[in-house]
Specification:
- The protein is mainly alpha-helical and about 240 residues long.
- It has one domain.
- Helices cover about 70% and strands about 0% of the residues.
- The chain contains 9 helices and no strands.
- Helix 1 packs antiparallel against helix 2, helix 1 packs parallel to helix 9 and helix 2 crosses helix 6.
Amino acid sequence: MVSSSAPRYAIIDTLRGAAIWLMFVYHFSWDLTYFGFADFGVVTNPYWLWFARFIAGTILLVMGMSQAVSAERQFNRKTFLKRVAVIGACAAAISFGTYQMNPNTFIFFGILHHIALVSLVMPFLVRLQTQTLTVLAVFSLVAPQFFEHEIFFVEWLWWVGLSPVTPAALDYVPILPWIGLSLIGVVIGRQLFTGQPSHTFGEWQPTNAASRLIHLAGRHSLLLYMIHQPILFGGVYGIYWLLR
């Protein structure tokens, strides 16, 4: 990795922020359904299921784009390890909190667990040639269709993503096929933001209140991810408690 003060692109933060706001919508709908204020079918309706996958996929795609930009900077081991440790600690906190709610469906390998683990290998993956990354991305995306096997249906291998049965969990983002989206994000990020960045995307800035709010969410995505559901869930629960 070369030493560089590569810029932070507003469009990347805004795309991440858009996914965060959509996640607010999904989780608020989940909370309303959970307490019986609505019946959106967020865990059974295919449209809601694909909506959730779209949100997760967007976050991981943007993660890959960010990794492509970060690869232009000088690698700082202390900063890197601190970032992974923080994400890992947040993932552990989510596992603990959801386990207290329901041990049968707690989040044992959700999107933060996925990001923490993939972040450990990304510094090596971003060194690969674009063609190699593309092949690896396609392989990752299709691997569960061809290589799933009952041998992977054991708890300590569920993170791989090759189990023929999907484990019960409120959020489940295994390595396969989801890492494929991050790898595609790296490829896209290289094309748009490295070498000679696209002026259309590289120079874009939020110009109105809505886009600035979305951009702000993207700049503070981890914090918002950690606090939004306790606030939403707690608020809906408070109303439920008052009305029961």
